[in-house]
Design a protein that fits this description.
about 350 residues; DNA binding; mainly alpha; 15 helices; about 50% helix; Integrase_recombinase_N; DNA_brk_join_enz; three-stranded antiparallel β-sheet; hpI Integrase, Chain A
Length: about 350
């Protein structure tokens, strides 16, 4: 018998054999780790104690109305009426919802009186109360909303433009995987986690593309006959064709079709969103790292770097790499392969030394 969940707005995730329950809007963990079957988790959620605690802590929804010109009124317009918001991915919408919930105490402020300096102060406080990356996402959400508001004369200007990041990104994050790391994961990962990693490694897609990639996007090229993926990428709306190399083709063709999407969860159903898939993969990789099977820094997106580096080492120029990645700018081709260029320089330097 399937037991239904009486509480909405939750995200149930299984990682390393245990279950966790998160508040979907903010990512806050509410329950877990829990051992057993999914029905055991649902039973825990449906207990009167949890339902009561959830109802007491659940943030208030947006008021039906705010004074015109206030931040609260603008957020309501953005989420309910702005067409650009409707086009966002579900993962981005969740990030925006979390940001706006944090900003709720400021909803009485008039948007045309908000200054860049005040936003810097808000960002700094948010970085302390939450964490720096969350603060950056909060500013990004506000800036996106303000940009649309300016276009519709709801604001005079966007004071969030050009605000520095609170989080200093590691330029070497999402590094290329070492050969032995990929070999171990390829040979040991469970199918539901290996599928997105295989696609990232051999087709170079981002997580947001992989989670929506359908069987209808995969098939023979209409002219050349080889199997390939043909999609329009979410990030930049580029129409991208990527051939399925033999290893990937054999793997994909051996999968069962349990959903419209190629990448599915352990139960055969589609992933709820990119974040759920990324979290499951990340937990698995960190578990392998803890056991010494792979090194630190391996990520799903790092397999996109591995894909680009492989193309570069086999003679593709930065423009070709960018096209194969589905990026409009050659700069992105260089971004993903700059370490390969440095390797080539080091090799040339040592070869010159040998000739002396």
């Amino acid at each position: 018998m399937v037991v239904s969940v009486k509480v909405t707005g939750l995200n149930i995730v299984k990682a390393r054999g245990k279950w966790y329950v998160y508040y979907r809007a903010t990512g806050e963990r509410l329950l877990g780790p829990i051992e057993g079957a999914r029905d055991d988790v649902v039973a825990a959620i449906n207990r009167k104690e949890f339902v009561a605690r959830w109802n007491n802590r659940r943030p208030e929804t947006l008021q039906s109305s705010y004074e015109d010109g206030t931040l609260g009124a603008l957020v309501r317009w953005f989420e309910l009426e702005c067409p650009n918001y409707l086009k966002l991915s579900e993962a981005t919408k969740k990030d925006y919802t979390a940001a706006f919930l944090y900003l709720k105490p400021c909803f009485h402020l008039h948007v045309n009186e908000i200054t860049t300096a005040e936003l810097y102060g808000l960002r700094d406080r948010c970085a302390i109360e939450k964490w720096p990356r969350f603060a950056d996402k909060m500013i990004s959400a506000v800036s996106s909303m303000f940009t649309q508001a300016v276009k519709r004369q709801k604001m005079k200007s966007n004071p969030a433009l050009g605000i520095d990041k609170a989080h200093s990104a590691d330029p070497n994050a999402n590094r290329e995987w070492l050969a032995h790391e990929w070999a171990y994961v390829r040979d040991h990962a469970p199918s539901h986690l290996l599928t997105p990693m295989m696609i990232a490694r051999h087709a170079g897609y981002r997580g947001q593309t992989i989670v929506k990639l359908r069987w209808s996007d995969y098939g023979p090229h209409p002219v050349h006959g080889f199997k390939c993926f043909r999609i329009v990428t979410k990030k930049n709306q580029e129409n991208v064709m990527v051939p399925a190399v033999d290893e990937l083709q054999r793997y994909i063709d051996g999968l069962g079709k349990t959903a419209l999407e190629i990448a599915t969860r352990q139960d055969g159903e589609r992933w709820e969103d990119e974040k759920q898939m990324q979290t499951a993969v990340s937990h698995y990789l960190r578990d392998l790292e803890g056991k010494g099977h792979i090194g630190p820094g391996t990520t799903l997106h790092g397999l996109r770097t591995s894909y680009a580096a492989d193309l570069k080492r086999h003679g593709a120029d930065t423009g070709d790499v960018a096209a194969a990645l589905g990026d409009k700018s050659e700069r992105m081709g260089a971004h993903y392969t700059r370490h390969v260029e440095n390797e080539a320089k080091v090799i040339r330097a040592f070869e010159a030394k040998k000739r002396q």
